[in-house]
Design goal:
The chain is α/β, with parallel strands linked by helices. The protein is 57% helix and 8% strand. A five-stranded mixed sheet has the order 1-2-3-4-5, with helices on both faces. The longest helix has 34 residues, at 133-166.
């Protein structure tokens, strides 16, 4: 490929034409700087890397799934960039006869700059509940670690070149070591997520998306906050009781039902059996849905306490989402 077809800027062409000392490195750095400017202009003109706007993230399980997906995506970008920089495919010092190869190397690095900026745009455009804005800002910051490092890299390399040229001669050939250091940390994300969990910003919609095991753990946490000692029974052979709560010598067995449909007699029967099996003082059935009339009658006949969707929602607001002065 001829130099004219490489699409170089005036500054890059001047380096190729004049070939000053360490020109290979100068060209490498200059092309990175030029290509980054091209990417920035592209986004400034309204380039949209996202074709479909996703649904709003309103529930905690959705947020966690989204965080996991985004974290994996940014790590792929980082790992591929690291592999490119650390590979032996491109040795700038030995590419004086391969101008096209130098340009190609520069542009491959800037591809990851584009990916990081596009990833950030998608994160920013994903609608989230106001409770999760802090976490979105923190995960968005991950891409800044990559894009900022690449953006600074070209300028820092040019500075190294000038320093090397202006330093006293040692009589040895001048070479430069290309090092692109990128550091990202998810610590702030984990801290924000932990604060969110501790603050208990739950809604009934969060509960609807839980698995059965997650719902059991949630109910155990709810009763822990009420001052109970809690234990989640084994998933197999639980004998109709999922959580056991103890307070002031009173032992309560809880059957949990995170269902999309109404709860019938069977759940009440299981709670009765579990109460006898574990020799409990009381038994409850807690659901994110509602109970049939027949189930309510059976519960009253057997002194089984029922928490339906409305009761659970009230408990969540009082226990997890209250903001005492």
């Amino acid at each position: 490929m001829t130099i004219e077809k490489l699409g170089l800027t005036t500054k890059a062409l001047q380096i190729v034409t004049e070939k000053p000392r360490l020109w290979e490195y100068r060209l490498f750095a200059q092309v990175i700087i030029d290509e980054i400017e091209t990417v920035n202009r592209l986004f400034q003109r309204g380039h949209n890397a996202q074709t479909v706007i996703p649904d709003k993230i309103s529930a905690l399980p959705d947020l966690i799934d989204w965080l996991s997906k985004k974290n994996k995506e940014i790590l792929v970008i980082l790992n591929q960039l690291t592999d490119l920089v650390n590979s032996n495919t491109y040795e700038i010092s030995s590419m004086s006869e391969n101008i096209g190869g130098i340009v190609e190397y520069s542009r491959k690095i800037v591809v990851f700059y584009y990916q990081a900026i596009a990833w950030s745009q998608i994160v920013q455009n994903t609608p989230v509940d106001s409770r999760y804005e802090e976490i979105r800002r923190e995960i968005d910051a991950l891409s800044k670690g990559i894009s900022t490092s690449i953006e600074q890299f070209g300028h820092e390399l040019l500075k190294q070149i000038n320093d090397a040229i202006n330093s006293p001669s040692t009589g040895k050939p001048r070479t430069l070591t290309i090092t692109l250091e990128v550091e990202i940390s998810t610590d702030r994300i984990h801290s924000a997520l932990e604060r969110l969990t501790q603050e208990g910003e739950y809604t009934i919609d969060d509960i609807d998306l839980m698995t059965g095991q997650e719902f059991e753990n949630f109910i155990a946490e709810l009763f822990s906050r009420l001052g109970y000692e809690t234990e989640v029974t084994k998933a197999s052979g639980d004998q109709g009781i999922d959580v056991i709560a103890l307070k002031n010598g009173v032992k309560i067995g809880i059957q949990t039902k995170c269902y999309s449909g109404t709860i019938g007699n069977r759940a009440i029967q299981e709670a009765v059996a579990g109460k006898n099996y574990y020799r409990l003082d009381k038994a409850m059935v807690i659901t994110n849905n509602h109970f049939t009339e027949s189930a309510q009658q059976l519960a009253r006949a057997n002194s089984i306490v029922l928490w339906d969707r409305n009761t659970l929602k009230e408990k969540i607001n009082n226990i997890f989402n209250s903001n005492p002065d």
